[in-house]
């Protein structure tokens, strides 16, 4: 313990000041429980907490307080003083945790300040390396306490205390608390980002382990009470998973490469300089040897990183034969040692593990699943080392969404299924995922109600992209989609019908083996009629018998009330492949009922401006009365 400055308060004065402040906080807490609490008292508590933060920060700076030294073996005065300060510091942290759970931004800011002023020493002795004693790192212990308070809702804590359901007003963390933590602390510092991702992974794995342990205990008991207890434990877990997902979706700035990390790096505590050497980008190297290496990506995360671990990169990181020339040999033998949170690969790996652990938790709300699926497809799959590990979650989400949609006909369930298939398609297209059931799964979603939902454009984009991007589709798959799309054009709105017919036209021109659907004729004894053997109800594309049928729906669509649909239906199958380009599906995705109506209005107004005669199709026969002649009122209302 360093000798105190004459201007600094003595240990006795510091201890007395800490006792008084904690006593005042304890008194305020009791008043709050009784309901006797106001905004002035809340401001006073915030000032007390900040004053305690400054006191403990000063003690850490003077090395009188070491939060990592919790051994009671040393009986010296400095050791006893440190143990007493640790006890008071734990009480102080508990008050901050209670404030964060209650949604107080002042407690959040104070806790972030505590983390920024309470570093811990980096210990590299286990690796045979040595660093300067002045090298520090962020305290994972404090950060994990903050994260636990931030992501675990009031309901979760009250359920674990009482075992009974709670009517807490806030089931999930307030958006303002998450946004404050993300903008003022998480976004600012690269080391904070890395340890937050590790902390989320740890919380999720601990929750899953406790869940599995409770499930094993319940299996060993016959009474129903044990099952109810386990169910109560799960009630708050969905909210915890939702909060972690919300926090992870905010992190869209994880470094992709070492150059990104070096150029934009800003650390809460500067990492140690272990060895000066020419920096080389080791990320491509990591991806090549770890693209699908589940041994490193195991759930237990063998890279426990005491996070004091370092990585040695030799040349490009792989074993290579030493060249014959001396200069090249000397260059490649040079080793660069980099602390863990200075490696962009470790950041990406930590993000992947945090997501995988969180997505294994049960009862993630539907509202959160929609955002998660979009974020995974648009950002996470392109940055994580092993994107194929998310295939299980996408598959599980699609199956759950399909089951819910079949039971409730809810648009949210349809959207989840669409987003899940979109993620699977990205994995198939960019990461060589083998998913033979993809087109059967997409075929299940082809229902007229999908054309009336808000997610219509996203579904049509996925449908067009998946069918047109693959030129090796079997004929029975193409034929099944053509038949189903024509049925949708018959029963769906005009905007959906235009898209369906345009896509059918493109598919028939791209897959000439399906031209039989257009040119098939009936037998003479049947007066040219063809029996439609297409089985619409089955989801197995091999059982639809679409290739044995015909697109008779086009003849019906030629008489559609909307002239655009009738025109496109007449052209399907008759286009010249050499002179007529394929339809641009992007143009048809933008069509809605309103846009078609406005387009028709514009056509009529342009015709009127050019003094051209424009006819509006209302009915085939001009009526002469309000009611028909057969109606009882037919003689009362005549049109002049």
Q: Measured on Cα atoms, how large is the radius of gyration?
A: 34 Å
The secondary structure category is mainly alpha
Categorize the overall geometry. elongated
Mean pLDDT: 79
Helix content: 55-70%
Oligomer: single chain
Write up this protein:
The chain is mainly alpha-helical and 640 residues long. The chain contains 26 helices and four strands. Helix 3 packs antiparallel against helix 4. The longest helix has 30 residues. About 12% of the residues have low confidence.
Q: Which structural traits does this protein have?
A:
640 residues, mainly alpha, two-stranded antiparallel sheet
Summary?
With about 650 residues, this protein is mainly alpha-helical. The chain has helices at about 10-35, 40-60, 75-100, 105-115, 140-150, 155-160, 175-185, 190-220, 225-235, 235-250, 260-265, 285-290, 325-330, 345-360, 365-380, 390-410, 410-430, 440-445, 455-470, 475-490, 495-510, 515-520, 555, 565-570, 585-590, 595-610, and strands at about 120, 135, 310-315, 335-340. The strands form two sheets. Strands 1-2 form a two-stranded antiparallel ribbon.
Layout of helices and strands:
Blueprint: H1 11-34, H2 39-61, H3 77-101, H4 105-117, E1 120-121, E2 136-137, H5 140-151, H6 154-162, H7 175-186, H8 190-219, H9 224-235, H10 237-250, H11 258-263, H12 283-290, E3 310-314, H13 326-332, E4 335-339, H14 344-359, H15 366-378, H16 391-408, H17 411-431, H18 438-444, H19 456-468, H20 475-491, H21 494-510, H22 516-519, H23 553-557, H24 563-571, H25 585-589, H26 593-609
Antiparallel strand pairs: 1-2, 3-4
Helix pairs in contact: 1-2, 1-3, 2-3, 2-4, 3-4, 3-5, 4-7, 5-8, 8-9, 8-10, 8-14, 10-14, 10-15, 15-17, 16-17, 17-19, 19-21, 20-21, 21-24
């Amino acid at each position: 313990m360093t000798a105190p400055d004459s201007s600094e308060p003595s240990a006795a004065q510091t201890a007395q000041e800490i006792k008084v402040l904690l006593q005042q906080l304890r008194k305020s807490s009791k008043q709050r429980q009784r309901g006797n609490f106001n905004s002035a008292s809340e401001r006073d508590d915030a000032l007390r907490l900040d004053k305690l933060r400054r006191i403990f920060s000063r003690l850490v700076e003077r090395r009188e307080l070491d939060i990592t030294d919790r051994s009671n073996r040393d009986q010296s005065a400095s050791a006893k003083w440190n143990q007493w300060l640790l006890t008071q510091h734990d009480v102080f942290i508990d008050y901050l945790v209670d404030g964060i759970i209650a949604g107080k931004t002042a407690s959040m800011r104070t806790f972030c300040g505590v983390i920024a002023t309470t570093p811990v020493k980096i210990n590299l002795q286990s690796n045979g390396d040595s660093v300067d004693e002045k090298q520090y790192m962020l305290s994972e212990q404090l950060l994990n306490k903050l994260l636990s308070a931030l992501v675990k809702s009031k309901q979760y804590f009250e359920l674990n205390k009482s075992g009974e359901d709670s009517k807490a007003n806030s089931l999930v963390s307030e958006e303002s608390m998450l946004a404050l933590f993300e903008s003022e602390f998480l976004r600012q510092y690269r080391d904070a980002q890395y340890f937050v991702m590790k902390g989320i992974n740890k919380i999720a794995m601990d929750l899953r382990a406790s869940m599995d342990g409770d499930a094993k205990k319940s299996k060993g008991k016959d009474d129903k009470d044990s099952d109810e207890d386990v169910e109560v434990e799960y009630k708050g877990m969905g909210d915890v998973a939702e909060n972690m997902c919300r926090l992870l979706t905010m992190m869209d700035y994880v470094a992709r490469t070492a150059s990104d990390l070096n150029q934009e790096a800003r650390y809460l505590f500067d990492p140690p300089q272990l060895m000066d050497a020419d920096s080389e980008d080791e990320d491509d190297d990591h991806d090549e040897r770890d693209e699908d290496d589940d041994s490193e990506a195991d759930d237990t995360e063998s890279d426990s990183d005491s996070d004091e671990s370092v990585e040695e990169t030799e040349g490009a990181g792989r074993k290579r034969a030493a060249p014959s020339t001396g200069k090249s040999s000397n260059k490649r033998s040079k080793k660069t040692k980099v602390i863990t949170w200075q490696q962009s690969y470790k950041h990406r790996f930590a993000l992947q593990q945090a997501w995988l652990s969180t997505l294994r938790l049960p009862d993630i709300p539907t509202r959160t699943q929609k955002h998660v699926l979009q974020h995974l497809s648009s950002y996470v799959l392109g940055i994580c080392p092993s994107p194929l590990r998310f295939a299980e979650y996408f598959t599980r989400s699609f199956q759950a969404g399909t089951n819910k949609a079949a039971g409730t006909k809810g648009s949210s369930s349809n959207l989840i299924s669409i987003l899940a298939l979109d993620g699977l398609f990205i994995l198939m297209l960019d990461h060589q995922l083998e998913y033979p059931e993809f087109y059967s799964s997409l075929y299940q979603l082809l229902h007229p109600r999908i054309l009336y939902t808000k997610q219509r454009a996203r579904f049509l984009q996925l449908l067009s992209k998946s069918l047109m991007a693959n030129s090796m589709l079997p004929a029975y798959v193409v034929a099944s989609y053509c038949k189903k799309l024509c049925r949708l054009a018959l029963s769906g709105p005009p905007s959906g019908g235009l898209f369906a017919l345009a896509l059918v036209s493109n598919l028939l021109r791209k897959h000439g083996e399906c031209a039989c659907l257009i040119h098939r004729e009936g037998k003479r004894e049947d007066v040219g009629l063809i029996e439609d053997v297409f089985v619409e109800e089955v989801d197995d594309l091999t059982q639809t018998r679409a290739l044995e049928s015909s697109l008779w729906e086009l003849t019906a669509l030629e008489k559609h009330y909307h002239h655009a649909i009738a025109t496109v239906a007449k052209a399907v199958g008759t286009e010249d492949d050499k002179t007529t380009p394929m339809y641009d599906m992007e143009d048809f995705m933008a069509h809605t009922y309103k846009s078609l109506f406005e387009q028709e209005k514009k056509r009529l107004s342009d015709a009127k401006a050019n003094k051209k005669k424009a006819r509006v199709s209302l009915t085939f026969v001009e009526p002469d009365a309000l009611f028909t002649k057969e109606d009882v009122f037919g003689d009362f209302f005549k049109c002049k």
